[in-house]
Amino acid sequence: MSVSRYSCSVECSRCTKNFKSSKSMWRHMMKSHQLSIAPLEFLDENNQPVTLAKPALIESASQLNSYNMWLSTIVERVNEALHPALPGRWTQVEDPCVPDSFVLHFIARIAEETADVVSPHCVKFLTHRGLPYRLKTEKISYKVYDLTAVKNALDEQRDLELRETAAFRHFAEVDDKGKDSCFQKLSMKEKIARMKASSKIGYVEHVQVPTSRSSLVICEGEGRCTREMEIIYWPKLYTFSKQYKFQLRFFIQKCDMQ
């Protein structure tokens, strides 16, 4: 059976050209028409507007407490992606069943924290091959390039703080004080001088030099090397509950210093 799977489009109000993502549309608006960035409306395969749930803040105190508990699990998994046992690459945190209000609140919080326009990057209708299986369902993506906004939104819960960087000596985390610290990587001449000085007072100084550093990278990137944080949700997977499948995609950079 043939199923129509497609990406929704946005249409330029000036020249009626169609684009598959808001970013490409905004680039066209600024370059060709000198227009400012504004929220866009996506059109389906029949050129009809696609109805999307609008981001909204949670008002109930009890529901907000539940949201903060869920958010702390997201932050913990993002922080653990810095561990040197995991490769530096695009990483994805996924929760298959999240209340719709949690996802919409998270997006609304990011919109509050940034001066950028927060609008869906793309809307697609495609097959969901996991459980629950859907032959055709909606997938919505937001892309955020503001690290400060993401950090403030994730730090709304007070249990854990989002970590942007971490230093490790092999698999053990060490303090990384910067250039003026004893933990910096010394030259061989400096190491010999330090060992000679310490031997005169009867002890050997152990310098725990980091062997690797990990960083969460969220920025515009260069050229085609994008470094955004992508928020993906599937709003219509579940038939009898207001639950979304939630995915958070981000880039972890690893630097081996050995």
Jot down its keywords:
258 residues; alpha+beta; two-stranded antiparallel sheet; 5 helices
Shape annotation:
globular
Are there runs of 5+ residues with pLDDT below 50, and where?
179-183
Over the alpha carbons, how many angstroms does the gyration radius reach? 23 Å
Strand content: 25-35%
List the domain count as a whole number.
2
**Estimated structural class:** alpha+beta
Oligomer: single chain
Distance between the termini: 55 Å
Number of strands: 13
The biggest beta sheet is recorded as: 9 strands, antiparallel
Tell me the number of helical segments per DSSP (H or I, 4 or more residues long): 5
Mean pLDDT reading: 86
Helix content: 25-40%
Secondary-structure element sequence? EEEHHEHEEHEEHEEEEE
Structural write-up:
With 258 residues, the protein is α+β, with helices and mostly antiparallel strands. It folds into two domains: 1-51; 54-166 and 213-256, no CATH class. The protein has five helices and 13 strands. The protein has helices spanning 22-32, 61-80, 100-113, 147-154, 188-200; strands at 6-7, 10-11, 18-19, 90-99, 122-128, 134-144, 165-169, 172-174, 212-217, 219-222, 225-227, 229-234, 243-256. The strands form three sheets. Strands 1, 4, 5, 6, 7, 8, 9, 12 and 13 form a nine-stranded antiparallel beta sheet that branches. Strands 2-3 form a two-stranded antiparallel ribbon. A hairpin with a 5-residue loop joins strand 5 and strand 6. Helix 3 crosses helix 4. The protein is globular. Mean pLDDT is 86; it is low at 179-183. This is GPI transamidase component PIG-S.
